[in-house]
Amino acid sequence: MTQKTYAVITYGCQMNAHDSERISGLLEDAGYRRAESGTDDADLVVFNTCAVRENADNRLYGNLGHLAPAKQRRPGMQIAVGGCMAQKDRELIVTKAPWVDVVFGTHNVGALPVLLERARVERSAQVEIREALEQFPSTLPTRRESAYAAWVSISVGCSNTCTYCIVPALRGKETDRRPGDILAEVRMLVDEGVQEVTLLGQNVNAYGLEFGDREAFAKLLRACGQVDGLRRVRFTSPHPKDFTDAVIAAMAETDNVMPSLHMPLQSGSDDVLRRMRRSYRSERFLGILDRVREAIPEAAVTTDIIVGFPGETEADFQATLDVVRQARFSGAFTFQYSIRPGTPAATMADQVPRPVVQERYERLVALQDEIAWQENLRLVGTPVEVMMATGEGRKDAATARMSGRARDNRLVHVAVGADPSARPRPGDLVEVAVTHAAPHHLVADGGVAGLVRTRGGDAYAARLAAPATVGVALGMPTLRPA
Ligand code: SF4
């Protein structure tokens, strides 16, 4: 019997990227192999969906519509929909797209192979959504996209109630993994060649509240510092409300915790923060940044900002610009507010007209880009350590540049020379001097001063050499907002 093939299409945040690796692992355990041409020839297509982004509905139903003819041509083909849209729309998905075979939720990822089999045997669509987490996706088999960098989930769900956010409704209240389980996973990853882990949770600073230890996240960072062979530790996302000085001290005193912080601001106006039900104020946010920079002067701070939240006035927006000027972020993910059905903010009065949101957004982006550029220019001439990557940035034969991330998570394009034997591999480390700065990246064209061939680079090379993985994207996860 020929082996069935699968393709997983992922939308949205890092949590979905993490869950998709589990979905792939589960399917490979069940005997599937990855389709070489994506959805074109796959026997099974899984959509791991996101309900946070604008037009998520249109996008999902549009993509399902595109697959309908393929399904008609190949009746044995199966289509499954998981993730936040599945949790939200449930039966509606098979009503709107009756050619879908399986709908599964965010709490029962592990049920996918059984549901696929049941759909096949019973010749009817299976919709199974659970209200509470059945098992941490981290305990499921995995097929990691990167050989040298990995996501490690420390919690799922969120116990906050930000009024623009659909995550708590779809992912449930926060549930924390136990530190022993997390560290066991980290050690196993390092044994496999992973050099960098990103600890993942909707609100990592609340980690431990569930089992009664307010300092659990700081302790976890310090414990990661004890893992031999683990070169880089990152985390996303921290909530300013729960940020403690113990975490700042752990970041500063743990060598492999990187000097970078992605902390969502969302708005600089205290009135808007109140209506967003974000319980910190701009003064607290800036206070955390001061303490982080005092303890870790080289830290780069990035953020998320929403422009045009309902009721945002020009004065509120000016308050955001003020905080941006003071915070001097090295980068920001900026979003134009748009209604997310099912969230409290969707029905608030005073929705800001689109053209006003657009105009404010452009002013914010111009200011932030200028600041990021100035911050990057300060690094010209300084040495940086870069972990080479693939799957983002440039890999450019003409200029012989490859891209990677500095310790502070800045994107760096590095001239690595034309000699293939002297080139770093993704996962290897290089020491370079910054020669040029742009708002969103640095360039190091002066040559590689130091090349460290790491076990991560070995793991990458071994994957490339393995016939089973030919054609597989071996990307490094990038930090993006949830
Ligand atoms: S925005 Fe973040 S902290 Fe707020 S409810 Fe959503 S996931 Fe939780």
Notes on the protein architecture:
With about 475 residues, this protein is an alpha/beta fold. It has 14 helices and 22 strands. The protein has helices at about 15-30, 55-75, 85-90, 90-95, 110-120, 165-170, 180-190, 215-225, 245-255, 270-275, 280-295, 315-325, 355-375, 455-465, and strands at about 5-10, 35, 45-50, 80-85, 100-105, 125-130, 150-155, 155, 175, 195-200, 230-235, 260, 300-305, 330-335, 385-390, 395, 400-405, 410-415, 430-435, 435, 440-445, 450. The strands form five sheets. Strands 15, 16, 17, 18, 19, 20, 21 and 22 form an eight-stranded mixed beta sheet that branches. Strands 2-1-3-4-5-6 form a six-stranded parallel beta sheet, sandwiched between helices. It has a three-stranded parallel beta sheet with strand order 7-10-11, with helices on both faces. It is globular and about 65 Å long. The two termini are about 40 Å apart. The model is unreliable at about 465-480 (pLDDT under 50). The structure holds iron/sulfur cluster.
Tell me roughly what share of residues is in helical segments: 25-40%
Distance between the termini: 41 Å
Global Rg: 23 Å
Mean pLDDT: 91
Report the total helices: 14
Largest sheet, strands/sense/barrel: 8 strands, mixed
Our estimate of the beta-strand percent is: 15-25%
The global form is globular
Structural class: alpha/beta
What's the number of extended β-strand segments? 22
* Low-confidence residue ranges: 467-482
